[in-house]
């Protein structure tokens, strides 16, 4: 095997086919089951997009009503999960809280617990598990933020759609439609993105015929890193560090001299701009106007102008999402768990696709450790 055969980071490797989404870096486009994501974000509630990603088609009115009827009872935290969360340190990182919550939900779902041979279960059961995870994760994230702030849990409201209910459970106030719309768009944009690191992790785990919860737990671990989903949190730390549009240039001089990665910029697949950014930037602009915070837009524009101008590296989705979530009132450490609550749709769609046409994912490695050697005193058995 030569150096050329090794695709470090799996750069450019096509690992499998998928019918769930198509990322086209040439045209800066992203299609969910054939639909441009911008069109979905502008017209659909996030649960209709979840139906599309899981089942291949947007739901009819009846199908959406039926999906909601099945999901609504699972929007509240099961008591055992509430208890498990309450036992965690209040200053645990919320990504650890969410990861553990999914693990607890897996242990509570005892169908298939008798043997590893039953871990995968039927397609119907996995569709139900996916819907339940999508329904309950907002309660985990919302309660996490309230618990950290010493506030009481807020129960879900059946009369609110998913984005509005998520905001209600977090803040306990009737959310403004401008905020609901921006939040709904962000959840749709975050819902799916082909073979990114966390989705691929989920597929690797599913390919061993492990269960859906285990695959989601692994995906959450992969998403936490700042080179992937953790970047939306990291972007906010950058905004806080810079503070003001006037100091962007000096801050960037220093950051680049220190060879720092500028969070929220760059992408493994998109090299000329992330297809999701214009839609999320428009949502951020609406929030900036709503909260009357032109300073946020000025800092956003100044850093983009300076960094992209100097390096030719464009913002990714996490760049507008970070300040948007901050304006909505979410704690910075909650941003990546918001990403989890949305991406769980894509992960579960991919896990089910993997089960449906499985091949164990097991690449090779080139060895460059010591040549064969022997333990002193070892004598081979006759
Ligand atoms: N800041 C500074 N330099 C950068 C950045 C950045 N954000 N992104 C890329 N570069 C530089 C690299 O240092 C490298 O320079 P070099 O050739 O001189 O060594 C060059 O651009 C090529 O970048 P790679 O890191 O090789 O590109 P790769 O495809 O491996 O990385 C990644 C993509 C990890 C996303 C990278 O751009 C990055 O670290 N960005 C910051 C973290 C981030 O925002 N992640 C979110 C990803 S999107 C998402 O998960 C929703």
From TrEMBL:
Keywords: Transferase, Tricarboxylic acid cycle. It comes from the Bacteria. Pathway: Carbohydrate metabolism; tricarboxylic acid cycle. InterPro entries: 2-MeCitrate/Citrate_synth_II (IPR011278), Citrate_synth-like_lrg_a-sub (IPR016142), Citrate_synth-like_sm_a-sub (IPR016143), Citrate_synthase (IPR002020), Citrate_synthase_AS (IPR019810), Citrate_synthase_bac-typ (IPR024176), Citrate_synthase_sf (IPR036969). It catalyses: oxaloacetate + acetyl-CoA + H2O = citrate + CoA + H(+). The keyword Transferase applies. Belongs to the citrate synthase family. This is Citrate synthase. It comes from Microbacterium paludicola.
């Amino acid at each position: 095997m030569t150096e050329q055969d090794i695709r470090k980071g799996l750069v450019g490797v096509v690992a499998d086919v998928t019918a769930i989404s198509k990322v086209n870096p040439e045209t800066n486009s992203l299609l969910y089951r054939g639909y441009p994501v911008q069109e979905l974000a502008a017209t659909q509630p996030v649960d209709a997009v979840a139906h599309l990603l899981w089942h291949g088609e947007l739901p009819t009115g009846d199908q959406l009503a039926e999906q909601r009827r099945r999901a609504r009872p699972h929007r509240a935290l099961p008591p055992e999960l509430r208890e498990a969360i309450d036992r965690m340190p209040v200053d645990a990182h919320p990504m650890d809280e969410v990861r553990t919550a999914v693990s607890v939900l897996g242990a509570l779902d005892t169908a298939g617990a008798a043997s590893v041979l039953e871990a995968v279960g039927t397609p119907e059961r996995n569709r139900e598990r996916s819907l339940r995870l999508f329904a309950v994760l907002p309660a985990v994230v919302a309660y996490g933020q309230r618990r950290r702030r010493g506030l009481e849990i807020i129960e879900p409201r059946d009369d609110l759609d998913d984005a509005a209910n998520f905001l209600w459970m977090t803040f306990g106030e009737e959310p403004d439609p401008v905020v609901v719309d921006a939040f709904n768009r962000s959840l749709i944009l975050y819902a799916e993105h082909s073979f990114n690191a966390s989705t691929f992790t989920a597929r690797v785990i599913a390919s061993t015929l492990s269960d859906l919860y285990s695959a989601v737990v692994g995906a959450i671990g992969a998403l936490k890193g700042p080179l992937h989903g953790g970047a939306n949190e990291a972007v906010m730390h950058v905004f806080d560090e810079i503070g003001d549009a006037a100091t962007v240039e000096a801050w960037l001089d220093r950051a680049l001299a220190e060879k720092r990665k500028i969070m929220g910029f760059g992408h493994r697949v998109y090299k000329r701009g992330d297809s999701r950014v214009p839609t999320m930037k428009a949502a951020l602009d609406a929030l900036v106007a709503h909260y009357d915070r032109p300073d946020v837009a000025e800092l956003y524009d100044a850093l983009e102008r300076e960094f992209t101008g100097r390096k030719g590296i464009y913002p990714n989705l996490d760049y507008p999402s970070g300040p948007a979530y901050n304006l909505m009132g979410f704690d910075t450490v909650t941003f990546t768990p918001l990403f989890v609550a949305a991406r769980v749709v894509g992960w579960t769609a991919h896990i089910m696709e993997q089960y449906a046409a499985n091949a164990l994912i097991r690449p090779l490695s080139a060895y460059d450790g010591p040549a064969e050697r022997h333990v002193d005193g070892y004598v081979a058995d006759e």
